[in-house]
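So, is this right?
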Amino acid sequence: MKKRGEITVFLSLMLSVLLFFFQALFQSAENALFRSQMEEALELSEYSVLSEYHRELWKRYELFYLDLSYGGGAEKTEYLEQRAEEFLNLNLKPGKVKALETWDYARATDGRGEAYYEQAVSVMKAKRGASILESFQEYAEYVRQAAEQEENYREADDRESRNLEELSRRREEEEEEGTPNPAEQTERLKGGSILHLILKDPGSVSGKRAELAGVPSDRTLLTGSGARGKNAYGVLNDAWFLAYLLEHFGNAAACLTGEKEGGPWLDYQLEYLIAGRDSDIANLEAVCGRLLAIREGMNYAYLLTDSAKVAECTAMATLLVGATLIPGLVEAVKQMLLLAWAFAESVLDLRLLLNGKRVAFRKDASTWKISLSNALELGDLSGMDDNEDADGLLYRDYLGILLTLTGREKKSMRSLDVIEGAVREASGGQWFYVDQCIDSFRLRTICMKGQEYTAERQFCYEW
């Protein structure tokens, strides 16, 4: 009897241990199941919260951002948390949310536009193959040549103008005879508005103005967690970003030729990215001035290599100067003729570009259009409006060259100026602020099911 009693007590103790073990096992399994349900509910909540992205930003610029103001102007992170809690409670059964907080918001303007730059790069990588990089990497060579020849032209123009002035003064003193300046007409034209020379219909230019006080590039911005580092600044990503800008922002040639209708905010948006002025006219004039300088440099460089055209200028210079004992005077007049000729060809180049035509970046005899006599008069160019270089660059390509010369931060922040202005006007969202747009944040929640369970997750758009 005593032995049986000992066995019974032992078995009873063993059964208690086993029951406790199984209870702990079941509790652990239940805890693991609820944690799994929490993670699943958080994932579903993430999809639901992020599905409330700003529709106009996606429609116009293919950007996924959540507007923390939800159209109200003032940022409301508590409303974001309320929405996240609602979605969690809908998907978390049984159980309920006891506490929830969000933080670490990645804003579009973080890093002075670097965060937005990274998403824009991702947009283009998803849409285009790597071959697109080849064409945009060519801009680097165009930029190098353009900058070099532009500087050469300016130096030559200043140098030869001073030289001719000095030699003409000497001739008047020594020979008591004046020397005609063949570039006089050119100098007068350079002093006026370039737009009247290059536009087919000056009255068709957009008269839009923008209020630049308080735009993202001008105001103090809300700061977030910074760029995500997925497409960091670099030469290749710069090419993708340039492709994004050229595809998503309007330009003057597209509007003037009717290829694209003017939209909200400024019409000449790529020009704004380059010049940063407050009106379409001012931006177009600034950009055309820079393009004219590039074309002058490239055209002058070609003229110096064309022996026939140099000889033509030499003959005309000799005729204009006549007999003289002043050394170098004929050469000085010849150089002024070459500079004036390059200027006239450049004016025609810009006129063609704004008419939607292609213009060769490097000229040769077959792509040169204007004669020396027409260059010195530079009158009505309408008869040349249909000339085009089949393998040349379009106006948009030339803007790409200027954008390559524009700093990253300027391009990023000015394009955010355009985005904010366009979204405000297009959707009636006058309280839209681009620095309240986020594409990533962290969420921590405490849920109850008999006891407290804590979970943390990053909510973000995948790009």
